[in-house]
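Q: My collaborator sent me two sequences in one message, no labels, and asked for predicted structures for both. Can we handle them in order? The first one she listed is below.
A: Yes, handling them in the order given. First sequence, followed by its structure tokens:
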Amino acid sequence: MHFGRFVVKNVTRNKRRTAFTVLSIGFSLFLLIMLYTVLDLLTNPPSTEASALRLAVRRSTSIAEMLPLSYQQKLEQVPHVMAVMPLQWFGGYYKEPKNFFGNLATDPVKFWKLFPEYKADEATKRAFAADRRAAVCAPDLMKRFGWKVGDRVTLKGTIFPVDLEFTLVGASDFELDKSNFWFRFDYLNEAMGDMGQVGSFWLQADSPESIPGIIQTVDTMFRNSPAETLTETEKSFQLAFVGMLGNVRLMIGSISLVVVFTMLLVAASTMAMTIRERMREVAILKAIGYPRQTILGLILGESTLIGLLGVGLGILLAAGLGHMDVNAMTMGFLPFFKPPWSVYGMAVAVSAGIGFFSGLFPALQASGMTITEAMRRLE
């Protein structure tokens, strides 16, 4: 007997039941892949050569509190610091609250040096520096709202009690940020009546080896001042920002546990019904001399194959989502959807585990029966 063919034939015997089981496992694993892809993007932001040299200086007490703008002059005197610029989250929206996207105020000249990942032509850079009300944004954002260069765009303030009108002077393209909107900090500061404060400063170090010394120097400089600082790498700053959402890892882990447990119950129910219907076959296999290990392997092979078919469907759905415009679907929250191989590997391992353990109890029960017990169960 070709055992592989026997397992495949048993899986396809009740096509409707198998199809529904595979669908339930597949969609559940697709959800699992989505959750862990988002978690990976939030906790392991992509790094570039330039981002490895960037440092964020913020208030030590809270990321939401502001620093005196006068700190910039002192930061520019720190050894091994190549450039310093202010960065302020504005948090405005366009026309309606649902039209929300990231909008930040910064220095129109130093921005391009500290963030070379954002690509723009020289004419756009000059126009950004020349006009106090100038703004640049991602091409995807321009397409979303039908903007073009020269248009006037008004953002309604939420954090700051002002509505700001901008002139769009060009595009700033970056693969990992499809919904950026950048404008000048001096314009915001002026609109707020010279508030003299900013949410954070961003520094560019001359080398990765200089970073620990810069962090120590900056935080020591402002220790015991009315506004103490916390200087950290770009990745640490992003993780602190994610931390404002709560314990994301615990939340996603809890949801995943519920999803896996539900899949296990569905698969176990399917295998229990399947084996109960095949007691005659179990009795016949025992009668013609097949050992317990063979029967155990056949049943476990069937349940594991169902689990692997489910993960195949889940991976296909995830791959399909990766070819869609995820940036537009999530309004800029996810610039793209590209699960890492570790997430796919986790999904395969979970599906194989679900298949194995869902069939383990029915397999042990069926393989341990005597021929008489199997026939009695059949009656």
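Q: And the one she listed second?
A: Here it is, processed independently of the first:
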Amino acid sequence: MLSLFENLFPAVSSKEQDPPIQQNFELEVNGDAVPVRILFEPRFNNRASVNKNGIIIRIAGRQSKEEQRKHIDNLLKWAKEKLNDKPELLENLQQRRYVNGEILKVGQYDFSISIHYHDLPKSSARIFKNNIVLSLSKGLSKEVEESTCSYLVSKCLCKFFLPSVTERIHELNGRFFKKQVNSVKLKYASSFWGHCSHSGNIVISVRLMFAPPAVIDYVYIHELAHLVHHDHSAAFWKLVEQMMFDYRKAEKHLKENGGKYYL
């Protein structure tokens, strides 16, 4: 079965080609033709937004062609599902603009942002005593600097929260499911809160760390339940409800507040 991306674009020759700077086309959603614009940029992360101008996908140009195809495909599917489910949700998932000295509150933690500039070609970041220290290359454009900060902060937070996330998922698994969890990873994802593969690999969006503990636990339980039922069947939701009787409150919270959780 062709991916959504491959269905939309003509086949390319086996010879590797540089990706275009911009690609424009239309995607049918609910019978309407929605404009889609794909931008290949010197950025570190991949993003999709939906607004009155259509679907805008920003792809990191440094990735391989195959990685770009995969991210475009996933982001197109995410955008189409969002518009199919709730056409009124035509808002951008924002990108935070970081200011030196500001406090970034993530769950129960307050991180102080410290921004420095240097002449080196590579930007970097680290967490030191709840300070996120960003060391940026001089001369970056405003947009590239913003995406670089977002990428670096997300990487720092993924490293910071991964031990506690892993511990909690294994704790819930041991208490309720007792299934094989092969790995737990954190990443910045705008198209999902959690994902569980058939082989027991769980991926959590670091955006979830902004949410209250009960909401975070719901996502963990949701993904762990996929180790038993690999779909969203009635049996799946019955199992989730057995583990968390008020899970619908957590789902409602994410639907109403998820747009506020971004980096």
